[in-house]
Structures are given as structure tokens and as C-alpha cells.
Amino acid sequence: MDWPHDPDGEQGSEGMRKYGQAIIAKKVNEDEDFPLSRDEFVEAHGDEPIRIDYQTVVSLRDVFENVEQESFDDFVAFHKAVGRAMRESGYWFYEGAEKFVGGKNSA
Questions:
Q1: How many domains does the chain have?
Q2: Which pTM was predicted?
Q3: Are 49 and 59 in contact (CB under 8 A)?
Q4: Residue-range definition of the domain harbouring residue 81
């Protein structure tokens, strides 16, 4: 796929190879962007690449397909919803992530 910028370049991963939720979190300004609309965020960043692991790059839009919450009052709520969606979609490559999907710790 032709990405709007290199997933491993300065704009994609701050000059270093960062993955998944760390890249998404850097797109949000905790002091200025909340409350945050899911749809507006996806509209602004949906086609940008998110490196999931050393082999996989998907669009932010793909990651947000399973983010059900429509708006977020703060960064913690945003971070939890994105993490939950990434685990449910199989975009969470950390060992043991499956124990958090659908469990009491996934909220």
C-alpha cells in the first residue's frame, strides 16, 4: 500500500521503530484534544500507517473499526478503548494479551 508517509520514518514512528498503540497515542495532545470525537480523529488520521509488529502495517482506520465508543473525555478513556479494540482485532502482539480480551481487565 502507498502510505502518506513512511511507517518507520520520523513522522511514522518518531525516528525510531515504535509499534501500535504508542504510535496512536502520539497523535493525541492530552491537554488540547479532549473531549475527542472518534469519527473526527479517524477522519484526520485514518489513512496513516500504524506498525503493529515488525512485519505488519495497517491503517489507523483499520485499528479503529472495533472502537465502539464515539467520544472520549480524557486520554485514559481513549487509551483503554483503543487497547481493547486492538486486542479484539488481533492487533495486539504482546504475549498474554488474550487473557485481557472480554475479561474484567479489558475495560
A1: 1
A2: 0.78
A3: yes
A4: 10-106
